[in-house]
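Possible regression after last week's pipeline update?

I re-ran a chain I had predicted before the update to compare outputs. Posting the input and the new output here so someone can diff against the archived version. Not blocking, just want to make sure nothing changed silently.
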Amino acid sequence: MDIVVKEELKAYIDPLTADEHDALERSILAEGCRDALVLWGNVLVDGHNRFGICQKHGLPFNTVQNTRFQSMEDVHLWMIEQHLGRRSVSDFQRGVLALRKRDILAARKQIEQAQLQRESDGTAEVVEDAGEDSPPWEPAPKISRAELAREAKLSTSQVGMIERIHAQAAAEVVEAVKAGVISISAAAAVADLPEEEQRAAAAGGKDELKQAAKRVRESKRKPRAPKPEAAEMDFEEADEEQIASRDAEVLSALEQLGEDAPALRRRVVALTRENDTLRAQLAALRKQLEAL
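New output (post-update):
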């Protein structure tokens, strides 16, 4: 059988790094290709790296057919499930795969609902060959973000950030987070910038990307409310009895200073009266402003 390699499937999952590929090649050369390649008909579904290495060195390999596939979407979903369970897949990659799964299931759900509506209206048509990506398939479950996060072994906030990166980030920022240059949270922050600014930050390297993320976060923080100035404080208007009572208290306290400080006593009394006058003026101004 001539095995067909579809570039679409080969590129559906992020490729191995050079180090990972070298390690796999050494393992196959030492122990042979232990895991069978998965086929759908003659199309290679899983084992692209193993197939390439075996072809390169003329090594034998086994194949197995997956008879459950009914469409290319079934193939995609199977590939996603396989890679979500692998420890070598990064958090970002798992998040992207989980979002792909959500999109496939959402599209299927929409088709199912449209079909049910046509059947309810009596307008459904029997189609002999609807194509490989049309029903029948198992009913598509509705999947929440929390369920996606659980499958991908991520938090719901991480899934949300990866979704933002996937939708808004420039290609250079995506490559940076894939390579581990910046964190998912930093990449999500940078993704809020205009595309040109994202590219400029990515061109500046790790430090510039981190600084860009910091600027975005700081711009979103709510500024602290300024402390009220003395003129803005809520003063109540003092009446004459309150002023006289306060004067008496001040004078009583000043009596303890003795007869050797008359000038100081007079100055304190004057300042106290001045303070009360200012309070009264501020209270009057506030009432005028409220009346406007």
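Follow-up from reviewer: compared with the archived run. The CA atoms of residues 69 and 78 lie 9 Å apart. Marking as no regression found.
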